[in-house]
């Protein structure tokens, strides 16, 4: 690792595998420039679960924080001195703050990032919701829906094991979760709020099933964008929240946690993200 260049230089990075696609460096560096943190740097490192303990153990006092993506959000927890209630609620950490006294604490900015992204589109409360998928992002979606949705949430999944997992998360988070088979996923599109948490291409076939009257779609993908489902939703006049919205809002919170500076420059970070995606 590069050595510390000055007493004020601070380092941060995003870790994961794969990681080459990550927009986090673009967003965080834009924030540093706007905040005048010219001695701060933000990098990306290809790190898997086996390499994580060694990497974290080797960090020196120049490090301010880490962003974590898959498959590290749960693997990092045993390496930390404590985690926030938000992170504990879904057993997932996407942000590590490295304190001056040597402590390492974990947080989850995906959940408040989802809530902030929805609020930005005017979605404060809904009476019901649907979640497409049952992975790690789906559990964060349920945690966000615990604060946004007043009624039941239906999760559309591919197996009974996934269905049981989602119902378990619902019990833990205080959300009334019902489950349905993925073959019925088109029914989800009638919900006031639909959160699509599945990998690229998974929801493409649903684009043809978008009804004439739609509510809000939150599609967590950002590349390629728009997804066929998001494009069809927009054509029907529905509200669409995209993966870049989530990425920016969760990164804003990460910057504030790592730098101690608030508010982080949301607009500048979004512009930087949009320009980076356009250039791809």
Walk me through the structure:
By secondary structure, this protein is α/β, with parallel strands linked by helices. Helix content is 36%, strand content 20%. The chain starts with 9 loop residues before the first strand and ends with a helix.
| Topology pattern, helix = H, strand = E | EHEHEEHEEHEHEHEEEHEHH
Average pLDDT metric: 95
Q: Spans with pLDDT under 50 lasting ≥5 residues?
A: 1-7
As laid out across the biggest beta sheet, the strand order is 2-1-3-5-6-4
Q: Tell how many strands the DSSP assignment holds.
A: 12
Share of helix, binned:
25-40%
Determine the structural class based on helices, strands and strand pairing.
alpha/beta
Topology:
Elements: E1 10-16, H1 24-35, E2 40-46, H2 52-57, E3 63-68, E4 82-83, H3 85-90, E5 95-98, E6 104-107, H4 110-120, E7 129-132, H5 136-148, E8 153-157, H6 160-173, E9 177-181, E10 193-196, E11 216-219, H7 228-235, E12 239-241, H8 243-259, H9 266-279
Parallel strand pairs: 1-2, 1-3, 4-6, 7-8, 7-10, 8-9, 10-11, 11-12
Antiparallel strand pairs: 3-5, 5-6
Task: Give a nutshell description of this structure.
It contains 9 helices and 12 strands. The protein has helices at 24-35, 52-57, 85-90, 110-120, 136-148, 160-173, 228-235, 243-259, 266-279, and strands spanning 10-16, 40-46, 63-68, 82-83, 95-98, 104-107, 129-132, 153-157, 177-181, 193-196, 216-219, 239-241.
